[in-house]
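Notes from the 1:1 (GR / supervisor)

We went over the backlog. Supervisor wanted to see one worked example end to end before approving the batch request, so GR pasted a single chain during the call. The sequence is below; no edits were made to it. Supervisor asked that the structure be written out right there so they could see what the output format looks like.
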Amino acid sequence: MSSIIDWFLVWWLRSGRYRWSRLRRRLCEAKYLNISLPIATSLEEIKDCLAEVIWTMDGPLHLYDAVSYPQTVWFKKKDDCDGFAILAASLLQRWKPSSKPMLITVMLRPMQRSHTVCAFYSSGQELWYFDNDSLRQGSYRTYNEIADKVRGDARLICWDVADPNILETIEFHIRQESELKGGD
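Structure output shown during the call:
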């Protein structure tokens, strides 16, 4: 059973998630596009905005997982990790485009440990990230270092880096097949 779930997680992140999210946005969230997002002029203000959002699991109409519009997240004031990440990316992009925010999604086993964060370049050219409403500052140089930190002690299946503006995969990484079949 484990290998079927692993296969699904790879397929979902590589091929299904962003297509489904773009379709779901068009069908179910277009009415939120006229919602104004707050203007943030510092990382502290972005943290304050994210603190107004309540973490909640995606509902059944999301059909597993979807990345909402940032306006939807802001209007509803609730979402799961990808909602926090997309809102953080949007606020960062508007405040400081040179920070180049990206979504990093790490698919893990157990599945409920899978997670999405918003990574961006700090003023010192190090990568930092928003983990829900927490700002994680470190001396990260690569997206891989952030993915590894997010993974913690869970078993990594795959991870990606996605452009939050168009929900397109920029990088995709999968564990070696031998690792997927043989455990850690």
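Supervisor's comment: Residues 178-184 have pLDDT under 50 and may be disordered.
Batch request approved.
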